Amino acid sequence: MIYAFIALAAVIIVMTAASFKKVPPETVFVVERMGSFYASYGEGVHFVVPLLDKVIAKISLAPQCLPLEKAAAVSADQVSLRLSALIRFSVTDAQKYSCSTENTPAALSSLTLTAFRNVISAVSAGDAVKSQDTIEKTVFRAVSAAAEQWGLNVSEIKLTELSLI
């Protein structure tokens, strides 16, 4: 009988100790209770209820860089172009970031590539190569507006390469 009590006490102590979560600076833990969003925990020590709560995502709030590697686009005059870009963003809403799409960075990359292709397809190849700043600004406006719905703040989209294939 005494051994059962000691074992139960040990289990309770271990579960309680494991329920304290330390969130580092510039990080947010997204917590789910019984399968649905419960809270976002910022920096500090937080208590997670054993068996009910689960940390589903650990999200960095630090600025991040997402490369858009060599992709193809076709201009209005049917010339193939190769483009590469760099997307700088930060997370502003951890709940939207973790719950709105399954893979938010991949969605941001796809959205940016689609926006680049749409803008480039409306101009000739020569104009596209000459007016990279205008293309960047147009894509930035389109992507940043859409990315806000995913809890992101896009700070810059920079074309690193735009050349004829």
Helix content: 25-40%
**For the record, what is the CATH homologous superfamily label of the largest domain?**
Band 7 domain
The stretches of 5 or more residues where confidence is low (pLDDT under 50) are: none
CATH topology of the largest domain: Tetrahydropterin Synthase, Chain A
Characterize the main sheet: 3 strands, antiparallel
Measured distance between first and last alpha carbons: 78 Å
Per DSSP, what share of the residues sits in E-state strands of 2 or more residues? 35-45%
Number of domains: 2
With helices defined by DSSP (H or I, 4 residues minimum), what is the helix count?
A: 5
How is the largest sheet built, in terms of strand order?
A: 3-2-5
Order of helices and strands: HEEEEEEEHHHHE
Taking Cα atoms only, what radius of gyration do you get, to the nearest Å?
23 Å
Describe the structure.
The protein has 165 residues and is an alpha+beta fold. It folds into two domains: 2-60, no CATH class; 64-164, Tetrahydropterin Synthase, Chain A, CATH 3.30.479. Helices cover 38% and strands 39% of the residues. The protein has five helices and eight strands; from the N terminus they run αβββββββααααβ. It has helices spanning 2-18, 94-99, 104-120, 125-130, 132-147, and strands spanning 20-23, 27-33, 36-41, 44-47, 53-60, 64-74, 80-91, 152-164. The chain has a three-stranded antiparallel beta sheet with strand order 3-2-5. It has a three-stranded antiparallel beta sheet with strand order 6-7-8. Strand 6 and strand 7 (80-91) form a beta hairpin.
